[in-house]
Amino acid sequence: MARERPVTPEVVREHGLNAQEYDLILDIMGRAPNLLELGIFSVMWSEHCSYKSSKKWLKTLPTTGPQVIKGPGENAGVVDIGEGLAAIFKMESHNHPSFIEPYQGAATGVGGILRDVFTMGARPVANLNALRFGAPEHSKTRHLVAGVVAGIGGYGNCVGVPTVGGEVNFDASYNGNILVNAMTVGIAPADRIFYSAAAGVGKPVVYVGSKTGRDGIHGATMASAEFGEDSAEKRPTVQVGDPFTEKLLIEACLELMATDAIVAIQDMGAAGLTSSSFEMASKGGSGVELELDKVPCREDGMTPYEMMLSESQERMLMVLQPDKQDLARGIFEKWDLDFAIIGRLTDSGRMVLKMHGEVVGDLPIDPLAEASPEYDRPWLPTPTQDDDDPAGFTPSVRPAEALKRLMATPDLCSKRWVWEQYDHMVMADTVARPGGDAAVVRIHGSNRGLAMASDCTPRYCKADPERGGAQAVAESWRNLTAVGARPLAITDNMNFGNPERPEIMGQFVGCIAGMKAACEALDYPVVSGNVSLYNETNGQAILPTPVIGGVGLIDDLDRIAGAALPGPDETIVLIGDTRGHLGASVYLRDVEGSAEGAPPPVDLAAERRNGDFVRTQIQGRRVSACHDLSDGGLAVALAEMALTGDCGADISEGTAAAGNLPPSAWLFGEDQARYLVTTGDAKALLAAADKAGVPARAIGKTGGDCLILAAGEAISLVELRAGHEGWLPGYMSR
Amino acid sequence: MKAAVIVFPGSNCDRDVQVALRQSMGSEPLMVWHKDSDFEKVDLIVLPGGFSYGDYLRCGAMAANSPVMKEVVARARKGVAVLGICNGFQVLTETGLLPGVLMRNADLRFVCRDVRVKVETSQSLFTAKYEQGQAIRIPVAHHDGNYFVDDDTLSAMEDRGQVALRYCDAAGEITAEANPNGSLRNIAGVYNETKTVLGLMPHPERLADPRMGGSDGRALFDGLVEALR
User: Fold this and answer.
1) What predicted TM-score, i.e. pTM, was given to this entire model?
2) Cβ of A423 and B110 within 8 Å?
3) Is the ipTM of this complex over 0.90?
4) N or C end of chain A: smaller count of CB under 10 Å?
5) Spatial distance between the Cα atoms of A465 and A476, rounded to a whole number of angstroms
């Protein structure tokens, strides 16, 4: 190691470790680490890998329930979906790399989350993506949108997993830090789930997949720091994806998993070979010895430091049953993938790294893993605001005009331009395509399905983190309910600014508290997740964005609902209480130009009651369409239903009966726990609601070719559609 | 009817077409790995969609030169029916079994959406169960579906009725708006001269089950089963 730099205080700083952390390293090692060892500590203790700022709070989230097979702590969460099957899913961020190099950053984000899921034995059946970009007028936004969407498509389309849903939003707070959160859902036999704990002295450690290159070195460390002016110079830390190899890796791994050859398996994600080998040995209470000269390398002369810290994609590490090595090798050779035995398990409790027979690194496993710093960072609660009284509200625009504008805003416009670039139908099981409340994917070979959606309303989280956190979980639950699914569990992707600032940490703490309350009230536990902090550029933080990825079960695909208005002469029924809450609404922000006010309160008991009622009605086939109310309230929900079904509606009767509520508050207020449904038998539905104690009222009828919001407030579907479908393609071609 | 689906590394619609064939055949098609060029005699060979060999050179170019394709080409020349869907169509043009090329979509973007295609004739193994002129709804999902062929070949193809399908609107009109990728004369699928080989960009196997929101694709498989019984 003649070329190796000595470990100076400057080198320690470059590795993102502070003085106390370095003292701890000296303590654990009993000597000064060499550069390789320092590099390993640095990635293992990075925020990205160690959750050092967030662990204390994440632990408070509910993670159990009768449906939970495996909660947080593995590559992905596992829930029971009956008939001997399990759904395995997780969401993960690839924010920093996607800002630096949008195509590859987003593509490798998809690749990474797919590996997290098939590592556990599941065939991936669906991808979703929650994307947040800067203001449309910002000079980089268009380039980032084009690159990220192409990258997600380029990867997902090639591996042949449908991209069925997600979100795309814009806000100036993301100008310097976009969010690319990718989610994969897979299905596995419930009795054949694969974990990462590796035990058994002498068992071979096997490397499969792509070769190791010099890409992505220190990606995890980059993802754990703020951006400055030099962020573009970090491009070499972004990895390059190869979806073709990933597709082969999926097939080869699933083929091997059908045998009993695998003791443990772990994908090489963030911090590559380092974190995968540590994880396996640490969880299994073993030691590990690696011969790094056996690692398949893309280029000559790679150092142990580069091999251990590379984040080259499409690689997996496995521990195999010794007598099954040849079987495994045969499968990987069939798929033309590298297969190399690079080490073995030991009982030393240490990670020993050798190169050409010489020991180049020697670290204790448990002390390193267990002593990873855990911070109780100081935090400041976000000041709460009073709820506004809508009664005195005077709008500046008439409702029909406001609706027309809202439907053509960057946040509420159709995202067709995005999802038509994703293959959302490959695997031929996509029952409900992108654009609805939740996507529905058939469980292959059955008449059952999984519903899935991603949700977050960051402006609520900014204004009141606790309400915002609860609302994100509630909306996820509502979206699954609106298609007729029984919500099972969530994965969370916590995107925040710099946790070393108390007000940012306060946002994190607040959101967690809200999420916890909602998860508990809705029996909707967290089974996996990811934290992305330091989403700041030059001190400007993103909106707090705890994205919730929800998965629900549909027992009978003949009993689901879609959002499309089914045709004329159906009665439109509004479920839930409408108080006209305009604080923090898109209407105030995008029509009235005011981002003020408290977000709507979240009444979790009402969420549960109203949602359970709606689901029962869908399953009983007593409603012909259903849509949840969220951004833009009643009017936007109705407009989306009308455009999807190409059928008009008249709710002037309901608006007239709204009493003292100003029409704008009635139409655009964002009160929670609400749904719009249509039915041919309003009397029966209202009676059932009354019996269940659920607020419900008939507000109008379907039919015609325009929306009539109130007397004299009509707008044609043609006009509405032009703006709704036109904004994004128009923006992207400017 | 006996059918084989060729599986290349990177094929990803092999299972989808397997399901559609099974539904129409009532029995299992043979799944043939690309390294197995010696597979049993079948009446229909299907080249599925996907990204064979990663499509890293040019879509379908590497697959066209694989050992199994030598065998497929030889059998096609003897009259065995061959159906190439999406990437399979690209492979067929690369082997020369079908004329023309599939270039990058005119707007340079991947496109996945339902389209309508007009069935030019019902006088083929593949379209016997459709009406001539019928506009069927099935999805496309491709980055390189922009069909092109030189003028002389095109007019010869038109004369021989080798254009199988054209992108159209709901009323069956061949319009520029209905063309998702810039294909010459809205061409979505073509036959060889004997109409025993069909290549098409849209995916009939994806809308062959009402549960998926449509079943216009099913008649293609039903028709093949009946014709090749």
Assistant:
1) 0.96
2) yes
3) yes
4) C
5) 17
